Amino acid sequence: MMTQTPGTRHEHSAAPLRADCVADTAGGLTFDIAGTGVTDPAHLVLRRRDGEETALPLAPAESGRLRAALPSGVDLPEGRWDAYARFGDDEPRRLSPGVSDLRSLVDRAPGDTADRIAVRIPYTAKDGTLAVRSWLRAPHAEAGDLRIGEDELEVSGRVYGTGLAPEAYAEVRERGGPRSVLRADVTVREAEFGFTVPYAPLGPGIWDLWLRPAGAEGPQVRIARLLDDVADKKPVFRYPRAAVRAENGEVEAWPYYTVDNDLSVTVSATG
Description:
Largest sheet: 11 strands, mixed
Number of strands: 21
Helix content: under 10%
Order of helices and strands: HEEEEEEEEEEEEEEEEEEEEE
């Protein structure tokens, strides 16, 4: 029978660790880990699914907790980041989600002078461990209310990191293959925009929504909904389907948010 001498390294690996998270209005996150009893130098490690890592120092806090901060000014590239704790030279240990206070993310409204939008939302991964979903966009077009008509979709939103010129317009782009592009006129009110997507000209497939805030010569900005506390909107935000007599026959069309929380329209043939 194999026996193992008790020691610090073994004790570290035996105890499960839970991390509480608090989000602030600027897009920063604070992580608190309780009950470690560890005196070794410690870090909270965020590891993206492609292997890139960001290490944040874990410092003693009240009640024997260890705390790490991810300020909004520290870049965290877009993606899904798994959360670990690393003590000294030990192997990083996955963290379990504790209590997440994300109230500051609900209806978050960055200042109009913000040149970029940093969004980090902690969530429970499919295996039950703690992960963080990150977005970093400059400029950014935030989708607001969607109005579903009988044969069209009305989109409203707000732009950050750039202005809206009189020549601004939206594009509805067919995804994949030889792409078609439908151009939609945009109404502008300071930093707010609105436009309508008619379903009839869209063939079966997936159509992605983009904003051209300065017209044809300016940036191409993917329209998304990021400024709230929902990490994965696709299974949460569901919209009704519209039956439409389109140019290519009978179709059903409906908006949805992608796995990246970008706004798109699905068109499916029914005839």
